[in-house]
Amino acid sequence: MRLMLDILTNILAEFWSVLGAMSPYLLFGFLVAGVLSVYISTEVVRRHLGGKGLLPVLKASLFGVPLPLCSCGVIPVSASLRKQGASKGATTAFLLSTPQTGVDSIFVTLSLLGPVFAIFRPIVALLTGFIGGSLVAIHEDDGQEIQQKPECTCETGACMVHPKGKKLVQVFKYGFVTLAGDIAKPLFFGLMAAALISALIPQDFFAESLGTGFLAKLLLMAVGIPIYVCATASVPLAAALIAIGVSPGAAFVFLMTGPATNIATIATVWKVMGRRTAVIYLLTTAGCALLFGTILDAIYTATARTAAPYMPWMLPPSLKTVAAVLLLAVLAWSMYASKHVHHEPIPKDREAKMLKLNVTGMTCSHCVAAVTSALKGCQGVETVDVDLKTGKALVDGKDLDVEALCNAVVEVGYGCNLDAKPAQAE
Fold first, then answer.
1. Residues 362 and 264 both lie in one domain
2. Are 201 and 244 spatial neighbours (Cβ–Cβ below 8 Å)?
3. Are 84 and 116 part of one and the same domain?
4. Could you read off the pLDDT of 285-294 as tens digits, one per residue?
5. What does the alpha-carbon distance between residue 249 and residue 251 come to, in Å, rounded to a whole number?
6. Based on the domain organization, do 68 and 216 belong to the same domain?
7. Is there a contact between 199 and 7 (Cβ–Cβ < 8 Å)?
8. pTM, whole model, 2 decimals?
9. What's the helix, strand, coil split of the chain in %, to 5?
10. Which of 74-83, 126-135, 172-181, 331-340 has the lowest mean pLDDT?
């Protein structure tokens, strides 16, 4: 009993320690993400991603680095950019660079892994996007014409534009409600996993078992590619791995592949962008992860630096405690708000006559916004109500074409089928 109590105490202590170290930086990251969401519109991005050559690829990689979109959220945005005229190379570059990092995860990386990781990570995201996008641009025949670009009007980070309401309110709403709600669960599980690893696995266990060389990198890449780990939640896991003997380069391989790829993302890229692009996307991620992980190990060896799990000297303990409590409050509120999203009540008789669609693959508010925007763009659609929890989309309008509606949803990376036929008006 005493042993179990000591283990539980150690787990909670590790959880609180990591939470306190990252909280001030994550809160600031939420604020910066909100500013980017409000002041950088997708229309600005679209104008720079069309055309042939490598310049749009470089621009797409640059645009993707600071945006706080995970591997699931970036798919509908990329599909939309592609549909509006972005080249395949630029779209692939955006797909590769965006989920690896964002302003929020950069600040968390600084707090838990130090300045070398915090600088190295976005640089690698940029280079990976440019390499993969360039390969696609060179090998793919992109015959798509630049289409007329309609103004995006949805009000979430998926469109990166907020035409309604006061901008300051929208900054805080996106950063501290929408984005926080999207990462709350994976962040909590990431912190718990990090606490369990730190409390239960002895230091240097990993190094003694598998070493710190290429085999360790291959193992963590094999773990990171198929699973979904958001860029922010992966940082405490990487810190915990380093604490038990994983080399900085091997931990970086996990940091890169976990957020950048998962089975669902690979399948969607295959469907939306084509087989060759999907293969280039996957091989670029794997190859760059191993290459840059090896380079990072060489940097730490040459400079004799230590990749500390976190740096408690950067901020006073009292500030970290306050920030940790505030972060928990923000995450709790964002989760509550996401489950109690205000919808205009739909009269029962009208709801019965609306078209009901089952939409699969939605995981966050970005997904809801992408599906809503796709459905609203279809002919005859007047109103759309998408529920993330149930995966249902209610569509109202005249002369609705079910096949066209589902095709629009599939084009932005989700599954769709008819749930029930609407009742006929009397």
1. no
2. yes
3. yes
4. 999 999 999 9
5. 5
6. yes
7. yes
8. 0.72
9. 65, 5, 30
10. 74-83
